[in-house]
Design brief:
30% strand, alpha/beta, 4 helices, 33% helix
């Protein structure tokens, strides 16, 4: 059995003011610790997480997204999610977080706001 993976790839469109990070794999109990360790260190004033390649999102992953949102908000840093899969969107909707977290259909849409 292969280990559960989540790759975090900083996109070329990133700059000092806004960083776009593409997540690839599963944002789940097995990957949230490293995800939070890495993403909490991001100093850019704006952060967009491209979720289009997240194959699975569980409650631990949702909790990690909320923790990162609160962490950044407390530092007056912006945060947005973009490109949620149908499964990810359903998990976020059931948890009621689509009303709390800024979620966009695409990275392009997130960058325009």
């Amino acid at each position: 059995m292969q280990p559960v993976r989540l790759d975090l790839l900083k996109q070329d469109s990133s700059n000092d003011e806004l960083v776009v990070v593409k997540l690839e794999g599963k944002l789940s109990l097995e990957t949230v610790s490293r995800f939070l360790q890495v993403m909490r260190l991001e100093p850019a004033p704006g952060l967009v997480l491209d979720m289009s390649e997240v194959k699975f999102l569980d409650s631990a992953g949702v909790g990690a997204l909320v923790q990162l949102f609160v962490h950044r908000r407390n530092r007056s840093q912006k945060f947005a999610l973009a490109g949620l899969s149908p499964q990810g969107n359903a998990v976020m909707e059931v948890s009621g977080l689509l009303k709390l977290l800024p979620v966009y259909a695409s990275v392009t849409e997130a960058l325009l706001t």
